Amino acid sequence: MNQLIFDFASHDYPGFDKFLGTENAELVYVLQHKHGQFIYVWGEEGAGKSHLLQAWVAQALDAGRNALYIDAAATPLTEAALDAEYLAIDQIEKLNNEEQALLFAIFNRFRNSGKGFLLLSSEYTPQQLVIREDLRTRMAYCLVYEVKPLTDREKIDALVSMAAARQVTIDPEIFEYLLNHWRRDMDSLMQMLDTLDNYAVMMGKRITLPLLRQLLKQQETQ
């Protein structure tokens, strides 16, 4: 069972230093300094929950710990997770009944042994989750934090900095327009920055508002 964990450990996860914004400073501090055996984070899609879970696992792996990240929407929760010292489960609302029973057992093992750290995430608060009642009682063990999304100004500043790192100068007005006419989560915005940069190179033009409008119009028809 350990082999599965080490296979996952080979993934290249982002670090806490790449997590943007200041609104979640307390949560980042708690995760970095292991304050709390059980932690539950929730927030809207694109707020950065997956980044935090992966950074937490990466930190444990760097310290030589047996750590595992599971996205419940894509990867089954199996008994291999019982061997993890640090276990992060993303989108726990996607766990089926059998997996919820296993998570209940993991809570009990970690709590009874005093060993093991568990970090859970969802778009929903613990009270809003549709889960087994026995598992809901274990959620009471968790420190609960809302992951707050970046403000519009923080998103624009981050995108300007990312563009500058590529030695590309983009007027903040362009990103303001993008925020109002495209998906607003940072993953989508960063992907659009990549697309816009490549599109400008392909067209042999500098990045301007008319060029962005042209690209967005093409995206709408695809």
UniProtKB/TrEMBL annotation:
Residues 152-216 form the Hda lid domain. GO terms for molecular function: DNA replication origin binding. SUPFAM superfamilies: P-loop containing nucleoside triphosphate hydrolases. GO terms for cellular component: plasma membrane. Coiled coil: none annotated. Pfam families: Hda_lid. GO terms for biological process: DNA replication initiation; negative regulation of DNA-templated DNA replication initiation. It comes from the Bacteria. This is DnaA regulatory inactivator Hda. The gene is hda.
